[in-house]
Fold this protein.
Amino acid sequence: MEPQPTSKRLLDQVRDALRPRHYSYCTEQAYVGWITRYVLFHGKSHPNEMGAPEVEVFVTHLSVEEHVAASTQNQAFSALLFLYEVLHKDLGPVDSLRAKRPTRLPTVLT
């Protein structure tokens, strides 16, 4: 009786894709954390069943409900883009979801 080939779990696939590209361990932990939050946010649906609209809803939720900074929102978005790259699934044009940092006016001492 031959052992059946087991497919790797989703987060293991992501880790295995990050390591040959020499991403840092901290980046790996952050990406896995964002992907976990994304999956849990959508009721444990597999990312293969989701697409660009779900990514947009999650990123919008982060900015509107969670009040995260623009850089945090962009990190989460990058993690989800990497996830769908690992899954070989095209999300289409979603670059408009990147957050822009607010412009700051300089304060002048008088």
In short: The CA atoms of residues 15 and 29 lie 9 Å apart. The chain has four helices and no strands. The longest helix spans residues 25-41.
